[in-house]
Automatic annotation (TrEMBL):
InterPro entries: MCP, MCP_dom_sf, MCP_transmembrane, Mito_Metabolite_Transporter. The keyword rRNA processing does not apply. This is Solute carrier family 25 (Mitochondrial dicarboxylate transporter), member 10. Belongs to the mitochondrial carrier (TC 2.A.29) family. Solcar repeats lie at residues 24-102, 110-201, 210-295. GO terms for biological process: transmembrane transport.
Amino acid sequence: MSSPVSQQSTVDALSPKKAVAKPYPFWLGGVAASIAASITHPLDLTKVRLQTSGDKGMIQSLRRTVHSNGVRGLFDGLTGTLLRQMTYSMTRFAAYDWAKAEVHRGPGPPPAYKMALAGSIAGGIAGVVGTPFETLMVRMQADKAKLPEQRYNYRNSIQGLYRMTSEEGISSWARGMGPNTFRSILMNMSQLASYDWFKQELLHMKVLEDGPILHFFASLGAGTVATTVCSPADVIKSRIMTAHGKGTSSTMGVIRASLAKEGPMFMFKGWVPAWTRLQPTTILIFLTLEQLKKGVDVYRNAGGKLL
């Protein structure tokens, strides 16, 4: 099955040298994101634990995790991460290419504001689809940083999703949907659109030719923009999703309590590990996605019919 529009990738759509007659498989974005997330999982784990615990810095949090659970503890909640990538990330990449084709039907690459609009649309769709899996992932990552009596103790993502549904009801799937979807809109508007924009500008200035080096620098810019734009929503989302008890699911309640206790800079708590995690993740996602698409091209050119 393929996405309804050409997915010559956020890179290839900007290259005057390439044209695609057939869309790429819609699931390539999810596979690329899963590979990247598996590699950077310890950093994502640390980011979540910094946002939801009393750890004061990235190194302290990493040491605490290794001391408490060994090196394997750095991969706590990995199954939740993979499930999230094959739902949320798969949706956002497919929806972005579809939205970009819908908002820009003229010749040449779309302007920056249309890229941002397409990213926002994709983020809104993916945020709704991915919220229950995001909640599950965050809980599994943050669990062992909590007191034993506050832990969820999910064995894996499937068992965790079943328990979350049976113990809290189907409404638990929508917990934190507001801030998560808002954060998803910001992420895709900033990450996907800025990646396209950086790529377009670097090509236009003829600084680099279309290839891995250009993809790397475009990803570098996109990761920095996305981290800064998304930090406040990311912190609030994590705190809502991991909170216990009545009255802890209110977005405004979490914001008021955090402001009173920590001041406005709480919204950027964990920025360094978030950037450290998102930067290589962004680079790995786009470099991997490009190679996957190149592999599809090679397969098709050799006469393959399955993709």
